[in-house]
Amino acid sequence: MNRWKRRALTAALFIIITSALTAQTGSVALDLRIARLDRAGAPELVDDHVLFTYAAAPGRRVRHVGVAFRHENFRTVHTFFRFPEREGEPWRDSSFFLAYPLPRDQEARTLEYRLVVDGIWTSDPANPNERISPDGVRLSRVDLPARPAPPSHNPMTVSAERRLVRFVLEPGDTTTGDLISVLGRQTFFDADRALDVRIAGSFNRWDPFMHVLREVRPGRWEIEVAVPPGTHSYYFVINGIRIVDPHNPQTRYHREGYFVSFFSVP
Q: pTM for the whole thing?
């Protein structure tokens, strides 16, 4: 294969890999960083994710790499992907990566983890940031950026007797990526496009067409909904994109595999 054909093939492969990754992560910056990986190293913070990498020692064949986290009580091992293949770089077959969304726990400041390489639990050899647990286990660590506290609590009870609650959305500047999708990704909206704001939750069978918020003044949307007793999960739908409530610090992981906001009605 001549040089120009090789370059064309490399460019086409880069586009294919980047497109495939974008479909998974929704972050262009993260996808470009993954596509350009040329070596393993310490974890990186990229666009609201922690990017983990691992490379096997020269001459060693590794089949599986995973990571388990202390905040999950090490119960789940998240499997790494192999580095995107490139012609003439066979070492990539034993190099791995994983983009892990930052935990939404407002109190979390450090992510502690252990790698699992072909079934062997170990600290991250490329990460010098670590500590020894009281049990004598070496834990690798990633320092997380501080997250701003939510401006207020949502929803607000309007009538306890009627179990009527008010949902409010004041997103501020929607072009800065401060809004987070139910997949834990920064979300940006066009400043020139009007916002269509709806709410879907367990109280309306997750129907985004049933309750539409009204813009009561520029930049503030509201709706009052009668909600039965119990604990309810919900999210906003802004221009068709599902967003966790930025004014409600209570979030949890839904069984369908995404984040939701929640609240309780006595």
A: 0.49
